[in-house]
Amino acid sequence: MRLGQNDRVTDPRAFRRPDTKTLSPRAISTRAAHPPAPTVPAQPPVGLPVYRTAVYGFDSMQDYADVLGGRTAGYVYSRIDNPTSDAFAAAVAALEGAEAGQPFASGMAAISTTLLGLLNAGDHVVAQAELYGGTFALLSSVLPRFGITCTLVPKRDGVETSSRDVAAAVRPETALIYAETVANPTMSVADLPGLSAVARAAGVSLVVDSTFASPVVCRPMEWGADLVVHSATKYIGGHSDSSGGVVVGGAELVSRVRAMRAELGAMLSPDEAFLLHRGLQTLPLRVERHSTSALAFATAMAAHPSVASVMYPGLSSHPDHELARSLFSVGEAGTTMYGGCVLVTPRGDASAGLALCDALTIGRVATSLGGVHTVVSHVPSTTHRQLDDTALAAAGIGPAAVRVSVGLEDSADLVADFTQALDRL
């Protein structure tokens, strides 16, 4: 039967109220609190619907108990699950080639909940020394309070941590290996196939933070990772207007993470999920532009006399350049994409990095990365403030290091802005 223009289809899952014709007339306050049940159009929406509800109704207490107990599929409470947020996580899982995904309120919520969901007291983690400051603090200060220890494996001789070094750090109590596809902020590239082989030999999980790469540049599960986490606030959202995180991977491991999230409450809101889901639709276009501009920017910065070093995997001088070429995707233009972040270290002490940031007119001093605007931060005093001088040195971060997230501005204008700032040093 073809529906007419004025016909509506009632959602069969909607709460079924008693037949009001058999009841006495209700007062205005009751009718205001209990309007007619919403309807669902016969035509599926092109945009993602936003379910701004905290609770869901049931026909009976048994239905409620069955959904809450996991015996029947459905929704109970948006701290646990929400259709909009679930749709976002499923979309990221599809991009990464994963079986399942779970949404979170932030990237750190995704990381901390994943680790707490997989680890127990007495477990040991092996991780690269080059980590985002929040992750470093979690592994070195927070988890040890709960009996979980970590060995941070530094790189040697300027080369990315080898799988052999990681294998040597594995103990009988090791339960997990943790890495970043592209390290924040040193831009070192993880040997994902090698780390995967070590994890398989040890019988442990490999968890990879792929925020800096995004699913467009690299998909770690294709190289053997078990779980992939993202701070969706960054490239996935892409506009610096929403916060969120996501973890994707095999269904069994993801279910363990979901169970921990439900207890800890770090759920992604439906409105944030809508914005992040929308960002996914332009992610390939944006990341390729970020990558193209970042390569041009990094090349120009490496040639400036006031710059001590530039770390960007797209430069042939980068120690992990060939590894990156083997792992990273080729864009529509036919060239390998290396992401949009560059670590620029001017000559001098910390004051040189601070002065560089303050002298910019296009680049903005701001936190986060992966958005439309180019943003900069002096690494030791901001994103990696949790690290002391010894830890900074072990992670390859100099006192003047500046992380640059290259935005979507014209690359020539960006180079000119940084050039005039460097000329003042």
Major sheet: 7 strands, mixed
Sequence stretches where pLDDT stays below 50 over 5 or more residues: 1-15
What is the helix/strand order? EHEHHEHEHEHEHEHEEHHEHEHEEHEH
- Indicate the structural class: alpha/beta
* Strands ordered across the widest β-sheet: 3-9-8-7-6-4-5
Would you tell me the overall average pLDDT? 92
How large is the share of residues in beta strands?
A: 5-15%
Write down how many β-strands occur, each being a DSSP E stretch of 2 or more residues. 14
Helix content: 25-40%
The gyration radius over C-alpha positions equals: 24 Å
**Head-to-tail CA distance between termini:** 75 Å
Which term fits the overall shape? Answer: globular
Tell me the number of helical segments per DSSP (H or I, 4 or more residues long).
14
Brief descriptors of the model:
425 residues, alpha/beta, seven-stranded mixed beta sheet, five-stranded mixed beta sheet, 14 helices
Give an account of the 3D structure.
- With 425 residues, the protein is an alpha/beta fold.
- 36% of the residues lie in helices and 15% in strands.
- The chain has helices at residues 28-33, 61-68, 83-96, 107-118, 133-142, 163-169, 192-202, 214-217, 251-264, 270-302, 321-327, 350-358, 389-394, 411-423, and strands at residues 9-10, 39-40, 100-104, 124-128, 149-153, 174-180, 205-209, 227-231, 245-249, 307-311, 341-346, 364-365, 375-378, 402-405.
- Strands 3-9-8-7-6-4-5 form a seven-stranded mixed β-sheet, with helices on both faces. It has a five-stranded mixed β-sheet with strand order 10-11-14-13-12, with helices on one face.
- Helix 7 links the parallel strand 6 (174-180) and strand 7 (205-209).
- The longest helix has 33 residues, at 270-302.
- 47% of the residues are buried.
